[in-house]
Write a structure and sequence with these properties.
The protein is mostly beta strands and 187 residues long. It has one domain. Strands 1, 2, 3, 4, 5, 6, 7, 8, 9, 10 and 11 form an 11-stranded mixed beta sheet that branches. The N and C termini lie far apart (51 Å).
């Protein structure tokens, strides 16, 4: 019995260590140390929810030669911090009703895209290519032009199928002075 208990405790400790994002930079969206900043290549912005630290990553989709995959320029997927930080694709409902993104080429700026989250189609985000070939997400946050870093969704678990969204916080850096800006919006 003692051997089984020791084995189980060791297994739990290993799981806790594997799922711990202690080495990661804290989230721009939350002071909670369980919420890390993803370090995925080609990261444009990310989304976190109050239910758990698992994070939805929005990253530029590049071909092996480094060029942007124009047919699908932004890939969206989970970074499952509660499962050791593994990458996992969104399921059908998550992709089509909640966290997926619709992209259309910008008419004003070739090579850029206008993005809208499927759950919030009235909030456009410009996916802008910078001079060095990287991409960033731009939008108005707190009334000023800003680079979107992350979105935080405060939710309440309901007894039914879908959780209830309480509010959405947008966090970024002001394009004018680089300072952190935030804005809370209703769902």
């Amino acid at each position: 019995m003692t051997l089984f208990r020791d084995f189980a405790l060791t297994g739990l400790a290993l799981l806790a260590f594997a799922a711990s994002p202690a080495a990661a930079e804290p989230s721009f969206c939350s002071d909670d140390p369980r919420y890390p900043t993803p370090d995925d290549p080609n990261l444009v912005f990310y989304l976190q929810r109050s239910l758990d630290p698992n994070t939805v990553v929005y990253a530029v989709n590049r071909r092996p030669d480094g060029a942007v995959e124009t047919g699908n320029p932004v890939q969206v997927y989970w970074r499952r911090y509660q499962e050791g930080g593994q990458r996992k694709e969104l399921d059908f409902l998550q992709r089509n009703l909640a966290f997926g993104v619709k992209l259309v080429p910008s008419k004003e700026s070739p090579g850029d895209y206008i993005a809208t989250l499927n759950a919030y189609p009235n909030i456009p985000v410009l996916i802008d290519e910078t001079d060095d070939g990287n991409f960033r997400a731009l939008m108005r946050i707190a009334g000023q032009p800003a680079q979107l870093v992350c979105v935080y969704v405060e939710m309440r678990q309901q007894l039914g199928f879908l959780p209830q969204v309480i509010h959405i916080d947008f966090y970024g850096r002001s394009l004018d002075n680089g300072e952190k800006v935030a804005e809370r919006r209703p769902p």
